[in-house]
Amino acid sequence: MVVSMDRWVGKLAIVTGASSGIGAAIADALVEKGLIVLGVARRSERIEERAKQLSIKKGKLHAIKADLTKEEDILKVFKWAKDNLGPVHILINNAGKGAQLNLTEGKTEDWKSVFDLNVIALSIATREAVKIMKENKINGHIVHVNSVLGHKVINYPNLNVYPASKFAVTALTETLRQELNHQGLKIKITSVSPGLVESEMSTLNPNLTAERKAAIEKMPILKSEDIADGVVYALSTPEHVQVHELTIKPVGETF
């Protein structure tokens, strides 16, 4: 199998949650490969700063500010992209969040916010991307940044509804694959499920509880760039090959 990113050069990729961590690493990697990338985040100034640093690269990074828990913001992102950058060929649904609470004492609004971002925003963005791909007869690619916790619940402090939201992503990936097949569309869908990654949700979070911090310090960990490399691999496969699920774990992980 020959892997190549050549067919995506000059094409538009939308990356959500692109201001830091995995999203930033994926956006940067795609720019390196020659893609036009629209990074979406509330902290869009961070993306704008990286765009300056990447200005000499083969591709180009653009930034747009959006709160992905608001449907109107998501719709504005896709309209702006279509009007200014062209039709989307790749969508990376990376934006996600957790909450350091348990199920017996957690707050309802915190649980809802996790599902609003991890599940509903992902579904809205996917719908809009597929709509544009269909209109323009694009054999695009959608990537859901999932988690190993979307396949197995582990003994880890205060996970609350986060695994449930990621199990939903696993189900949505397979449901979308079947829908696309039923419609005869050659749009690929990939779930990328990392283990623990160094990010603002883990080691770089200054608000970690003492219990969670102690648990993380005992675990092997991945870099955001490791996940970006996995995404690039999935995108690089020939058009007849679909990487449906890609699980990425650090060596030594026990779950």
Key phrases:
single chain; 255 residues; seven-stranded parallel sheet; 7 strands; 42% helix; globular
Report how far the terminal alpha carbons are from each other.
Answer: 30 Å
Mean pLDDT: 93
Estimate what percentage of residues fall within beta strands.
Answer: 15-25%
The largest beta-sheet arranges its strands as 3-2-1-4-5-6-7
The count of helical stretches stands at 7
Principal-axis shape? globular
* Poorly predicted residue ranges: none
Computed CA radius of gyration, to the nearest angstrom? 17 Å
The helix/strand class is alpha/beta
Order of helices and strands: EHEHEHEHEHEHHE
Fraction of residues in helix? 40-55%
Total strands: the figure is: 7
Largest sheet: 7 strands, parallel
Structure overview:
This protein is of the alpha/beta class and 255 residues long. 42% of the residues lie in helices and 15% in strands. The protein has 7 helices and 7 strands; from the N terminus they run E-H-E-H-E-H-E-H-E-H-E-H-H-E. It has helices at 21-32, 44-53, 71-84, 108-135, 162-182, 210-217, 224-236; strands spanning 12-16, 36-41, 60-65, 88-93, 141-145, 188-194, 245-248. Strands 3-2-1-4-5-6-7 form a 7-stranded parallel beta sheet, sandwiched between helices. The radius of gyration is 17 Å and the shape is globular. It starts with 11 loop residues before the first strand and ends in a 7-residue tail after the last strand. The mean pLDDT is 93.
